[in-house]
Write a structure and sequence with these properties.
Layout: H1 9-26, E1 34-35, H2 39-46, E2 63-73, E3 76-85, E4 88-95, E5 104-109, E6 112-119, E7 122-128, E8 133-138, H3 141-146, H4 149-152
Antiparallel strand pairs: 1-2, 2-3, 3-4, 4-8, 5-6, 6-7, 7-8
């Protein structure tokens, strides 16, 4: 159950997809297409295979990169990045840029707004910038927040949420 209706119903579809993909990986129903602990090598594996270009930064010592898979969303091929933080499996689904106003607004950073919600037993942090929409899924909000270190480990305001 959503904690609050979405301002943008299409964002709920992406939340459903992200949670479903995460749950399938956790339950080992969908295997990873690539197992890779190096963020640069993982980014390179996805290059040219997905419709959402991205590059993972070096990351953090507290993040254990596991790998990823490609999710088919309509005509789009989008990356699902899987990693472990605090001993828990987390995932990050990247999609095309669109409003991600779902759940409760948790934080703002410049022009970005971050939203959190609990959906089908998982915690989700959703946000979007001019190039990509992001859905970070974990068993607990603490692990989801720690997942922010995947890209923001070296930033002074990394504990934004």
């Amino acid at each position: 159950m959503f904690s609050k209706p979405a301002e943008h119903p299409e964002a709920l579809t992406w939340v459903d997809l992200a949670v479903e993909a995460h749950a399938a990986v956790v339950a080992d129903q969908k295997g990873l297409e690539v197992r890779e602990s190096d963020p640069a090598a993982l980014s390179a594996w996805f290059e040219g295979k997905v419709d959402v270009p991205f590059t993972l930064p070096a990351g953090s010592d507290s993040i254990e990169m596991i790998g990823g898979r490609i999710e088919q969303v309509g005509v789009l091929r989008v990356p699902l990045i899987v990693f472990r933080t605090g001993g828990e499996l987390s995932s990050l689904l990247l999609g095309p840029p669109q409003p991600m106003a779902v759940g409760d607004k948790a934080a703002e950073r410049g022009t970005l707004s971050f939203y959190t919600l609990r959906h089908h037993g998982y915690d989700v942090i959703a946000w979007s910038d001019a190039n990509v929409s992001y859905l970070l899924v974990a068993n607990h909000l603490r692990a989801a927040k720690e997942g922010c270190l995947l890209c923001h480990a070296d930033e002074p305001d990394r504990n934004l949420m």
